[in-house]
Amino acid sequence: MTDDVRGLCAPRFAAVRAAFAASLARHDVGASVAVRLDGEPVVDLWGGHTDPERSVHWERDTLTAVNSTTKNMTALCALVLADRGLLDLAAPVAAYWPEFAAAGKEGVLVRHVLSHSAGLPSLPGTVSAEDLYDWDRVTALLAALAPAWEPGTAAGYHALTFGFLIGEVVRRVTGRTLGAFFAEEVAGPLGADFHIGLPARHDHRVAPLVPPPARTDEYAATAPQGPDGVPRAEAGGPVVRVRDVNSVPWRRAQIPAVNGFGNARSAALLHSVLANGGTAGGVRLLSARGCEPAWRELVRGQDRVLGTPMCWTAGFGKFGDTFGWGGWGGSLVVSDPGSRLTVAYVMNGMIDRDRQEDDRGTDLVTAAFGALY
Known about the structure:
The protein is of the alpha+beta class. The protein is 29% helix and 17% strand. It has 12 helices and 14 strands. It has helices at residues 14-26, 70-83, 110-114, 135-144, 161-174, 178-190, 232-236, 242-245, 248-252, 264-275, 288-291, 360-370, and strands at 6-9, 30-37, 40-48, 64-67, 195-196, 260-262, 279-280, 283-284, 299-302, 309-312, 317-319, 322-326, 332-336, 341-347. The strands form 4 sheets. It has a 7-stranded antiparallel sheet with strand order 1-3-2-14-13-12-11, with helices on both faces. It has a 3-stranded antiparallel sheet with strand order 4-6-5. The chain has a two-stranded antiparallel ribbon with strand order 7-8. Helix 1 (14-26) packs antiparallel against helix 12 (360-370), helix 2 (70-83) packs parallel to helix 5 (161-174) and helix 4 crosses helix 5 (161-174). The two termini are 31 Å apart.
């Protein structure tokens, strides 16, 4: 395969370009990678194709579904509101959403939701992706639900509920959907080409997700275990397939944990704000102090859903000195406030991690950090 990597790469970060070219040659259908240092772009590369037949080139402005990498952007919305004094991360969720106090949840704090420790990882009463499109019904289900464990005492990944919980708080505070608030107050000022609830005018730029080799578009997100070791689909929650994520209703919906559309450039731009004292590209979105919850540990221990040791901050996974999160299929964004470095990777070709290790994103992160030393 010829090297079809396009875009810019500062000489210092040549190893990132090499790792990206190798990934395109081995695994990727189409993808993009971006690195920002001190809030400024040093790598902005893309290549490959938008379709499994490899007939349409991935372009500079190609978008694709980033799945749970969206959680980074949803958390950023909460931190912006907190920085403006409109949201108290230590306040009960019910202070903003009174109905939420039902079933013993009066002590659930905003920070518990952000750190996946609210005890609400499942969505009983939902079966398919279509059930996620009814915002009022889903949030009413969550408001009536009892926590699966004492909030704040342990974490359990809130794969889908994270976005509805934070999104409803944002809606109660601002009167806007999370997608609208994000577009107007976060992505808009920064000029970030990232969308939660994708307008139809962008459909022509979307590269559909491509299921892993030997899989069809019925390929579904692996259901992590519930708090009692039961797969989440059995404990109560929808099964989401590739064909759901590639559908028009999914694009239009508000599912702020998982249905963001963007590319590496936009993900890195947004996340770099938190690694760069609240600014990126000359635009201030947060105060320096307002960034700190992104990397300040809130809960640590065995995650009751993921089944692995985790450290969670106010909206992000913490890994050593870095923080961020990734999405089903392989996308990710990671920042280090110490070095003021952010790395993002977005792709459409998925790898089945139950069958094969997916080191594409981590190889790029390693190459980027290696350039600093």
